[in-house]
Amino acid sequence: MITLILRTNPARGERSHALGFVLGELLIFVVLLTALSVWLLPIALEARQKENESHAREYLRMIAASEQVWQREMGAYVDLRRLAESVPNPPQHRNHLRTPGLAFKSPMVFDSDGIGHRGGYRFRIGNNDHGRPVGCWAWPNLRDYSGYDTYWIDFETAKVSISSVAASWNDTPGTLAPDRVGLRPLGN
Q: Does the pTM of the predicted model rise above 0.85?
């Protein structure tokens, strides 16, 4: 509601008309905007969270498929940075030894610890007790904002599992493969 404010200057005998907001109306408007944002923000974040989690699972499947190609063609798994920087093979050069495997459509960003960042999630290769890569972790950059679940994929089976590890920005799942007790199969 816009209120017409009459300003008078009794010394000059003048009157001026100006449109404006009364302070109370402005405060009500700010309160309504705040209430709407508090109500709608969790809905928007939940959609973003589900999308990030879905992308993380797909990236893990892509990583596992690429690692299986490296294992088959080179006899060993590789680290995540080398895998992400690999070039896809043209069909006529499928068994080329220098660049076996599949490549990511858009590159991952890596930090100094070799952790890959992509789509609201962080990725790190997990090793067995002998230091051999056996799978990959994926955990949210910021828990409850970019995602909630921590995922693990085993390179041999290419099965994605949800881990009981509650990892986030500074709480990484580590470089060791999880024990089977801390994993539950993904429903889809």
A: no
